[in-house]
Amino acid sequence: MERKGKFWPKELTDFSDVPCPVRSLPPQWYHTVQVRRIRSLRARSNSDPLQGKNLGQGLQWPKKGLSFGNASSYLNLEKLGEGSYATVYKGISRFPGMRSVNGSPYTIYAVSLAEPSLLKGLKHANIVLLHDIIQTRETLTFVFEYVHTDLSQYMVQHPGGLLPYNVRLFMFQLLRGLAYIHHQHILHRDLKPQNLLISYLGELKLADFGLARAKSIPSQTYSSEVVTLWYRPPDVLLGATDYSTDLDIWGAGCIFIEMLQGYPAFSGVSDAFEQLEKIWSVLGTPTEESWPGVSQLPNYKTDWLTLRGKQPFGSVWERLSRTMGAEDLACKMLKGCPRERISAEDALLHKLFSTLPCQLYQLSDVRSIFTVPGLSLKPEIRDLLIPHRKVSQPTVHHKPW
User: Fold this and answer.
1) Which family does the entry's similarity section mention (predicted)?
2) 81 plus 178 within the same structural domain
3) Rounded to two decimals, what is the model's pTM?
4) How far is 151 from 131, CA to CA, in rounded Å?
5) pLDDT digit string (tens) for 345-361?
6) Residue 119: helix, strand or coil by DSSP?
C-alpha cells in the first residue's frame, strides 16, 4: 500500500456531491479507509468480526443525529491492516433500519485511495462502490460496500487453477469493469488478484484505486513506477511513461493466465531486469522490426538483452490450449508492443465468451451479470473433492465455494 509522491490532491475539499445511494440499494455490507500516516504494513484479513453472531439483536443504535459524512454514523469493530497512508478497518453502519440480509448491521472495510475524486462518479456493478466520505482534521475516511474476499484468496482456496467456466465469468467481469473505467478515461494502474474483490455470489469488483489516474486527452506522461512487478508490462519496465489503457490490459492478461494455471504468469523475480527476462523468454526479445520505437525507451540496453525466440503460449501455459479461445485471447492481451494489445471493449466480444448468454451484453452498467437467469459460478474441483467445513449456522448468501 506504499505510495510515492503526493497522496491527496490539494483541491479535494468539497464533498457535497459525493454519491450516497445507500438509501436505494438492497442491504449489503460496507468497508472504509481511514487515511493517516502510519509505519507498518500488514496483510489484509477477511476474518469475520461478527463471528456468525447477529449483532442486530444485541445493539441499540441511536436514531437521531446520524448523517452521511459523519464519523459517528459508523462503528469500527476490527482493525484489518495498516499501510503507509491508510489504516484498514472493518465495522458497521449505525443508520437506523439498515441491516444486512442476515439481520446483522452493515459492515465497513478500508482500502487505500490516492484520488477519491475518481471514484465519486463511477457507478458500475464491477467497480467497488463508494458510499460515503468522512473528513476530519486528522483523517479522511472512505466508506465502501463490503465484499467478502478477493481473487488472490479465492485462488489460494482453490489451488491448481480455477474451473475454466468460472474463469470465463471472472474474466468477463474484469474486462467489463475495465471497459467502463477506460471509457471514463481512467487507468487503474495496479491490477493484481489482491485488488479484485469477489463477493459470495462470484461478483468481481475492481478495487484499490490508490494508483489510479485520469487519462487526459491529449495524453500526458505518468510515472513508470506503477503496477506490482509481476503484472507490469514490458514497455513500463523499460521506462515508458506515455502509456494508456494498454497498461491495464497487460495486467488483466497476466491475471487471466494465473486463474487458469494456478500460478502467476511471470513470477519469482526481484527486479525489472529479471522481470523482462521472464517476459522475453516467452514473447521473444523485441527488435525495432517487431516493436517500433522500443530502442528509444529509457531503460532499453542492448548489452544486457539476451536474444530469445517467441514460444507458443499453449506450450508455456498448457491449460490455455485446453480451453477454447483462451490462448488466442491471452496472445492478444500480452503483446510486447503496447499499441498492439486488444482493448477491453473488443476483448469482451472474443470467442472465449461465445458460450455465455447473449443477455450479458444488454445489461446496464449497474446490473450484475448474475441477474441473468441461470448464470452462476460452478463448484471448483477442490469443492467437489473435499467436504465443506461445518458451519455454526446456515448462510443466506449461497456461497459457491
Assistant:
1) Belongs to the protein kinase superfamily. CMGC Ser/Thr protein kinase family. CDC2/CDKX subfamily.
2) no
3) 0.75
4) 22
5) 999 999 999 999 999 99
6) helix
